[in-house]
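Design a sequence for this backbone.
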């Protein structure tokens, strides 16, 4: 199949850990690699955010990233990108020329708009190309949790559900998302589940672990944004100290790549000020961004990885920890309900409950044999269910279902005739 991926803000080539660069970048990159390895031809269309970027980057056989001029060639917050989706669509259509792809798979609501506009333009020229959409995050859920702090453009309220209703199929990453999608008006018959995966050859149970500074280490990894609940992990560290477990450090990974950036980051400052007020600042290590290839050694250095978000559309970090055979303590929200099996691969706790978090972490730190068993089972679960090849196969099935929905006689997009030319 010829597949066009659309990922407006999340380039598969971007460094991870910044405010707008996380799971979606990983997902688009790894899924595209896995689909190309299965013999498909994949083009990933993303916004040019640096004038120095080449127009096209060949990543491997069958996989190319195309940088489309859509708005200023500068890094912009994703919440400012809506006005440029028309340009992204135009860039894609121009790149397709007279050979539109078999399917378009868009990621995040704004890419969905660009994808739908691009296939409309192809349809005007006689080709019917189905759009499959992965939301990665839903505005309804974000608004519910962030209220007035939500910086999404107001148009998201009505445009996002319209993407869900107009796309040929929606790919939910977890069962919790299916409920949310149905509540948004997406018919269940048009929803498939294709979770995120984990790179099992990078995230392994054996391999180097970076040295730690205390007897115990807990790690929290992710973008430094309040909803990730890193403050709850700091509070749990304080509670562990009160309970007599003082020789524990909390390593926080994510945020800016350099020291100056980290020092001026409002979330990093808030977290350190909380740590000081709880008397645990000497045991909280703010590492900043860690390159992907160093992440396994970081995860393996921890007794447990803590993921305490208020809500989480999917959450790749717990899967990465599981693949490294490190037990996870996670809040029972979103995708974490599917990935972390309570008492088998980790422990689930209610959201925004530092006491429950501290109790679960304490249980693992005091019972290393139990923690090891959870870690081993985590690796098994990650290998059995979350390899990117398996996710690619599930995604492929959804593509085939969407192609079958294309009206008879147009099951594959017609090759268009160049103006005034001969049929190809
Ligand atoms: N990540 C990274 N370096 C960092 C911080 C995060 O490579 O400094 C990666 C992390 O390993 C994971 C992704 O970014 O692969 C975060 O994905 P997740 O789904 O957990 O969170 P999201 O960012 O999508 O909310």
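Sequence:
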């Amino acid at each position: 199949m010829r597949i066009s991926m659309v990922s407006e803000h999340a380039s598969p080539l971007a460094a991870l850990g910044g405010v707008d660069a996380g799971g979606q970048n990983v997902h688009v990159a790894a899924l595209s690699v896995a689909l190309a390895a299965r013999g498909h031809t994949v083009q990933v269309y993303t916004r040019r955010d640096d004038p120095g970027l080449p127009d096209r980057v060949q990543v491997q056989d069958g996989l190319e990233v195309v940088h489309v001029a859509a708005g200023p060639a500068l890094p912009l917050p994703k919440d400012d990108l809506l006005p440029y989706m028309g340009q992204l669509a135009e860039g894609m259509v121009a790149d397709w020329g007279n050979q539109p792809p078999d399917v378009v798979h868009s990621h995040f609501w704004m890419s969905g708009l660009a994808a739908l506009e691009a296939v409309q333009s192809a349809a005007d020229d006689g080709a019917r190309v189905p759009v499959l959409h992965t939301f990665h995050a839903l505005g309804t859920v974000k608004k519910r949790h962030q209220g007035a702090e939500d910086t999404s453009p107001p148009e998201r309220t009505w445009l996002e559900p319209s993407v869900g209703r107009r796309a040929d199929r929606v790919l939910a990453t977890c069962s919790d998302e299916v409920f949310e999608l149905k509540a948004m008006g997406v018919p269940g018959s048009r929803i498939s589940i294709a979770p995120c995966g984990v790179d099992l050859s990078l995230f392994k149970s054996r391999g180097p672990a970076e040295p730690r500074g205390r007897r115990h280490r807990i790690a929290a990894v992710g973008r430094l944004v309040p909803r990730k609940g890193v403050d709850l992990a700091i509070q749990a560290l304080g509670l562990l100290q009160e309970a007599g477990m003082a020789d524990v450090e909390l390593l926080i990974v994510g945020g800016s790549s350099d020291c100056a950036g980290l020092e001026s980051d409002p979330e990093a400052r808030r977290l350190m000020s909380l740590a000081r007020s709880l008397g645990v600042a000497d045991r909280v290590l703010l590492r900043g961004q860690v390159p992907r290839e160093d992440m396994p050694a970081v995860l393996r250095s921890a007794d447990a990885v803590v993921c305490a978000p208020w809500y989480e559309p999917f959450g790749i970090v717990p899967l990465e920890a599981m693949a490294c055979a490190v037990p996870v303590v996670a809040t029972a929200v979103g995708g974490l309900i599917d990935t972390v099996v309570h008492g088998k691969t980790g422990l689930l706790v209610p959201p925004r409950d530092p006491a429950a978090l501290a109790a679960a972490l304490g249980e693992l730190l005091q019972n290393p044999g139990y923690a090891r068993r959870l870690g081993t089972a985590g690796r098994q679960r990650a290998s059995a269910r979350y390899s990117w090849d398996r996710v690619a196969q599930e995604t492929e099935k959804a593509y085939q279902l969407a192609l079958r929905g294309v009206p008879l006689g147009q099951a594959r997009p017609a090759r268009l005739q160049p103006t005034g030319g001969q049929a190809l």
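The pocket of uridine-5'-diphosphate is lined by residues 16-17, 22-24, 26, 221-223, 253-254, 289-290, 292, 295, 314-317, 320 (CB under 6 Å).
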